[in-house]
Amino acid sequence: MSQGHILVERTGAAAWVTISNPDKRNAMSLDMWRELDAAVATLETDPGLRVIVLRGAGGKAFVSGADISEFGTLRVSSEVARAYDAAGRQAMNRLRAVAVPTVAMIEGFCLGGGVLIALCCDLRYAASDAVFSIPAARVGLGYDWWAVKDLLDGVGPSVAKEMLFVANTYYAEAARSVGLINRVIESEWLLGEVTEIVARIASNAPLTIRAAKQTIAELVKIGGQPDTDLCDRLTAQCLDSEDYREGHEAFLQKRTPRFEGK
Asked: DSSP string spanning 94-148?
């Protein structure tokens, strides 16, 4: 039975979500997928929350994929695997759709489902020693279309095919060069740099960030036309907000604005 858990720590306007199963390089069990979904569901009801950070416990891995010790029972066939796959999909859908920005802070191994979790986040910052791979082809595991879609959106079809066909390893700089991550940061500076980025996000106008995130989601969604009326409403909400007036006044007064999300 897995001893892994999802831990949540609130620091100011940020929530730090730690994927903790260090004895297995933070491999995700069925219970952990369900805990991740529940944690994000709780966080998205918090009106004071401005940003969510995901990281792995122990500093040696972000997430090393699925807990392979469960494969013999929970993923023994496509029919049996439905509950496991549904739990993973639900957790990642919720993470992808949460209104506030999400940041992945990646150290060490980021493999399989770990890559997918990272791709569900809006921003991805990796330590210089991070390594990325999707080794599904080495164990005969197929990837669902929605997981492949996240990979396509992140790195494009050519790199996605290489990752899935060759099951090769991308070191941090190579991962950055193909768009898998935003930046590479020296390992000893990663926490400090991410903390600073999170603080900057939290200090910016939340309605503006929310409008930008939702507009981007509309423009890249699967099939159909983007809801441009929704995008227009979100933009108008920003212009009609108290935050916009605060931002304008702060600029004229040469002071730091204090945004309330109203």
From this structure: HHHH-SS-EEEEE-SEEETHHHHHHHHSSEEEEETT-EEE--HHHHTPPPPHHHH
Separation of first and last alpha carbons in the chain: 46
Q: What is the pLDDT of residue 186?
A: 97
Q: Residue 53: which H helix or E strand, with range?
A: strand 51-56
What architecture is the 5-201 domain classified under in CATH? Alpha-Beta Complex (3.90)
On whether the CB atoms of residues 115 and 132 are closer than 8 A, the answer is yes
Amino acid at 155: V
Cβ atoms < 10 Å from Cβ of 55:
23
Domain extents in the chain: 5-201, 205-253
Confidence of residue 1 (pLDDT cuts 50, 70, 90): very low
Burial of 71 (0-12, 13-18, 19+ CB in 10 A): middle
Which own/partner contact pairs does 226-234 have at CB distance under 8 Å and 24+ positions apart? 234/207, 234/210
The pLDDT tens digits of the residues spanning 208-257 come to 999 999 998 888 887 778 888 888 898 898 888 887 787 788 888 888 88
